[in-house]
Amino acid sequence: MDDIEPFKFGQSEPQAPVVLSGMDRIGERMTRRIRAVLEPMVGAKPQVSCEAVSVFSYSNWCLFVPDFVSLTVYRLHPLKGATLLRIDADMVSALVDCVYGGTGARAPFNRKEFTPTEDRLLARFTGTLIEKLVESWAETHAVDATLVNRETNINYINVAGPDEQVVVQRFEVSLGRNDVWPIEFIYPLTALRGVEQLMGAKVHDELKISDPAWRERLGRQINHVRFPARSVLARPSMSLSQLMQLEPGDVIPVQISRSLPLIVGDRVFAHGTIGEKEGRAAFMIEKLAEGNEG
Asked: How far is CA 183 from CA 20, 141, 224, in A?
């Protein structure tokens, strides 16, 4: 019986160690940032802890979401799919109470909508959290966050299929009392698969592959770089005495080669001929220089 291992219900397959270890490091950074965001709001040092990242089927995760809850959907470009931020309604109420001088004690939340004050605080709080999440990701993979929508009912949110696996990053928050609230970030597992190798690196400088988002941006910028291109029709040779005797109206005989070089910068890029197209002088490339094929 020594080989029996505990089973975590709702976890649909063995966890992917590379992806999840990278997410745990992001969680460690995020823990400090959440604490820094909450401290001026509650007027005290809150307790924030990060749980080990878990993988669930989306339908199983939804079973544990309250009927009324703050759900904010973001796109973290260039990750695929959507990222969901969950904050419970009673935590929002407690934060408002703290901001206005209260103790932040847990109170039954029987309403089905937030007050205007709660909405304003919630918008500011979630916006700040996502900014801190982008900062926490930056050391692993650069992302840009875009707000998609806000909801209070999980039935109106669709960030993954029922059987699709999601990665749940959960933080436990206490505002100085015995009450503890969760803050959760939910990612489709497929979104993280695309950056799995990046997630496995401990230090960004140690990455064995380049950042695909950075390469894409660099490629777009390089496509707009301009280079001077020119061709040389002839190279007549003259002695110094002939040069000194030149006057306006003198004609220098030249012989134009059939194959002329196309020079980009200081390098011969191709060879071709001079002609005419639509009433303008034109250069027709006949052969690329060696090393420029393809």
From this structure: 18, 22, 43
